[in-house]
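Ligand-bound model needed. iron/sulfur cluster.
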Amino acid sequence: MTVKIIESNKTCTGCFACYNTCPKSAIKMELIDGFYKPVISQTACVSCGMCVSVCPQNSDVRITNYQTKAYACKNNDNAVRVKSSSGGVFTVLSESVLSEGGVVYGVAFDKQFLTHHIRVDSMIDMVKLRRSKYLQSYVGDVFKNIKRDMTEGRKVLFSGTPCQCAGLNAYLEGNRENLIIVEVLCHGVPSPVIWKNYLDYRVKKSKNSSRVENCMFRTKDACRSASWNNSYMYIKLDSEDYIVNSDSDPFMMLFARSDIILNDSCYECRYRELVNRGFADISLCDFWNIDRIAPSFNDGGGISLMMIHSQSGENLAEECIKTMAVAEVEPQRALLLNSSSHQPKQINQNSKVRSSLIRFPAKFGRIYFTYLPVIYGRKVIDKIKKILKRQ
Ligand SMILES: Cc1cc2nc3c(=O)[nH]c(=O)nc-3n(C[C@H](O)[C@H](O)[C@H](O)COP(=O)(O)OP(=O)(O)OC[C@H]3O[C@@H](n4cnc5c(N)ncnc54)[C@H](O)[C@@H]3O)c2cc1C
Ligand code: SF4
Ligand code: SF4
Ligand code: SF4
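Prediction:
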């Protein structure tokens, strides 16, 4: 019998729960249409159905009774905050777990600048997890390793997108002793394949460069004019630095501005609602538009919105709050100010630009990477001209 884990590959989030669960290691996660999806070896599969039962997309999203709490937070150490995407809360949470002999799982770049979940047990390595990398990450065997750490009695912090947190919870069958799940509010994940093509494009575009040496999304410190609200894409090549405002960088345009290179499942995400729903103990996101709630708290260096969804989340947060600047806020009101807690436009899922990029990333990538900034730049100039005409 041929096993079908999920109704359609389009609804697969790539959470890796099925991969970690299969008792016969019959599942491989492969890049299909730009994203990690399961492929079953029919020779190894014994049709036990465990992959079907574990898949979070085949079950309801968890609803909790816990009264969600929300805080505006900033790390007191400005050197850490400037190297974090928002207010640097993830570092404080991790420090607390590591100081008790625990381990932290999160996302780091590999040598190719693709993203993987890794395990760290020291502050030196924790630095690799800092900063958001806006790509689907390869989770690998991490859920199995977490189970082993938990069985050995170690405290574990797992961080990832809400669908990855759902995958971990399903894999552990809800057993969360010694485990803290921290999710990042998620706009969606772009394709690693398109990212790889983008990096190749950057290298080719720079006449004297042959390789990428470092990458950072949404930096606050890559140049003088960079800040939390005015962030930059930074790609270090061997012979020059590419530093461009996030709003004008073609990859960021395709990801955040146009919602065109997200995983199919992101257009119908069931995990974005952060109040009394989901699988995390703590959620982290940027506290966009904080000036409408607590203007005096905003110093421009980056503010996180931390939301607590469980008693174990509260226990960890209580400790951490002592070492940060914090203001309690009303959860629903704060989330309303963050557009990513609403759906990206489904219409972009079926756009011709998306399908051409996903099917032929090398060919169409080059075209869009070259012309998007030009087209967008023209639109801005046209807008300015119109405004000037009106005056
Ligand atoms: C793909 C993605 C989309 C996001 N979209 C939004 C959004 O639309 N709105 C918003 O307010 N916030 C969003 N965030 C969260 C935000 O960017 C910050 O990560 C979050 O506020 C924590 O910041 P920090 O300053 O506390 O710590 P940081 O040190 O910046 O935290 C980094 C954290 O992100 C995790 N992480 C990094 N890359 C990935 C990845 N590829 N997949 C899974 N986890 C990852 C790390 O493991 C770590 O836990 C997104 C994050 C990611 C990864
Ligand atoms: S049915 Fe069982 S053996 Fe087959 S892929 Fe799924 S989990 Fe593995
Ligand atoms: S959503 Fe997760 S568990 Fe379900 S098929 Fe995709 S990777 Fe497997
Ligand atoms: S938008 Fe939803 S489905 Fe897509 S990566 Fe984020 S949590 Fe997962």
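The longest strand covers residues 212-219.
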